[in-house]
Design a protein that fits this description.
Elements: E1 15-16, E2 22-23, E3 39-43, E4 48-49, E5 55-62, E6 70-89, E7 98-118, E8 124-125, E9 130-137, E10 146-149, H1 156-162, H2 167-178, H3 181-190, H4 196-200, E11 203-207, E12 214-218, H5 223-231, H6 235-238, E13 240-241, E14 246-247, E15 249-265, E16 270-272, E17 276-280
C-alpha cells in the first residue's frame, strides 16, 4: 500500500519543534457530555520512514457545532523501542539447539505534541464537505534503527554497548548445564582442544536395557579436565560458527512512533483521530 501524495503546506504558521515539545495533559481537551468535538480523519501514504525524514499525511476535518469554528490541529506521538537479541552456540551436536534470546519493548518517550498547524478557512472542499490538510511532521535522526548481526569480526565495543556484562558467564553456565557427552565432545573437538582419539580415552559407557545399545558418558575422574577446558574457553569462541566464519550473535533496536492528530475548535475541544504506527528505519 504505497500511495504517493505530494506534500504541500496549506496552513500558514506551521510550527515544528521536537526540542520544545509539550507533554500530554490528560485533563486538557477532554470532550465532556454535551460537547461536540470536531470530526477529523487522516491517512499516511507509508507507515515506515527513515529516521530524520518527514512523515507525510493528509487530513480532513470539520466542526459539528453551530457557531464553533476550527482553530488549529496538532500531531502528538509517543516513541517505543523494540530490542531483539539472540546468541547461540553452533558447536553443539545436532541433538541440541542452544539459543538465548530476548524481545523487549519499552517506552522511549511519553506522548508529546510535536507539531501545530493553524486552521486555514480557504482549505474547505465542497465535494468532501471538509477542510483539507496535506503536510508533514518531522522525526529525529537519533531514532535510526540499529542492527548488529552475525558479524565476521568480533567487536568488543559493540558487544559491551548492546549486551549486559553478565551475559558471557550466564551463557556459558547455562550451556554447560545442557551439555552431555555428545555436546562436550562436539564442542572440544571443534575448538581443537581435544582430538577424537583423546576423547575416546576419557569416555565410558553403560548398556541401555531399553534400547539394547550403549549410553556414553565422560569418566568421573576426567570431568575436571573437561570442565577446565570449557571454563577457559572464551565466550566469543563458543558462538563462532566454524563453517560460516561468523559469530552467532544478533542485536536489533527499532523505534516506532504511535501518532494521533487532533483537531481543536474555538472552544478548545479536540477531536482525535485513530492511532498510526510508524516504524523508523
Amino acid at each position: 500500500m504505497k500511495t504517493s501524495f505530494k506534500s504541500a503546506t496549506l496552513f500558514a504558521g506551521v510550527l515544528f519543534g521536537l526540542a520544545s515539545c509539550t507533554e500530554y495533559d490528560m485533563v486538557d481537551n477532554v470532550v465532556r457530555v454535551g460537547q461536540m468535538a470536531p470530526t477529523v480523519y487522516w491517512e499516511l501514504p507509508s507507515n515506515s520512514v527513515a529516521a530524520g525524514e518527514d512523515v507525510e499525511f493528509k487530513a480532513q476535518y470539520y466542526t459539528n457545532e453551530e457557531g464553533v469554528v476550527a482553530d488549529h490541529l496538532e500531531v502528538w506521538y509517543l516513541i517505543n523501542n523494540n530490542v531483539n537479541t539472540s546468541v547461540s552456540c553452533p558447536l553443539v551436536s545436532s541433538t541440541l539447539a542452544f539459543t538465548m534470546a530476548t524481545n523487549v519493548t519499552n517506552v522511549t518517550r511519553d506522548n508529546e505534541k510535536v507539531a501545530t498547524y493553524l486552521h486555514n478557512p480557504n482549505s474547505w472542499d465542497n465535494t468532501k464537505r471538509a477542510y483539507q490538510l496535506d503536510t508533514t511532521f518531522s522525526t529525529s535522526k537519533t531514532l535510526a534503527a540499529i542492527s548488529w548481526a552475525t558479524p565476521e569480526t568480533w567487536d568488543q565495543e559493540k558487544f559491551d554497548t548492546y549486551f549486559p556484562a553478565t551475559l558471557p558467564q550466564t551463557f556459558k553456565d547455562s550451556l554447560y548445564k545442557k551439555c552431555n557427552y555428545a555436546e562436550f565432545r562436539s564442542i572440544l573437538i571443534k575448538l581443537n582442544l581435544m582430538t577424537p582419539e583423546r576423547f575416546e580415552g576419557i569416555k565410558d559407557s553403560v548398556k541401555n536395557p531399553n534400547t539394547g545399545g550403549f549410553d556414553y558418558f565422560i569418566k568421573t575422574d576426567s570431568m575436571p579436565i573437561v570442565k577446565g577446558m570449557y571454563d577457559n574457553t572464551k565466550f566469543s569462541d563458543l558462538i563462532l560458527d566454524p563453517s560460516s566464519g561468523t559469530y552467532n550473535i544478533e542485536y536489533s533496536k527499532i523505534y516506532t512512533l504511535t501518532a494521533t492528530l487532533k483537531a481543536i475548535d474555538s472552544k478548545g475541544i479536540a477531536g482525535i483521530t485513530d492511532k498510526k504506527e510508524i516504524e523508523l528505519r
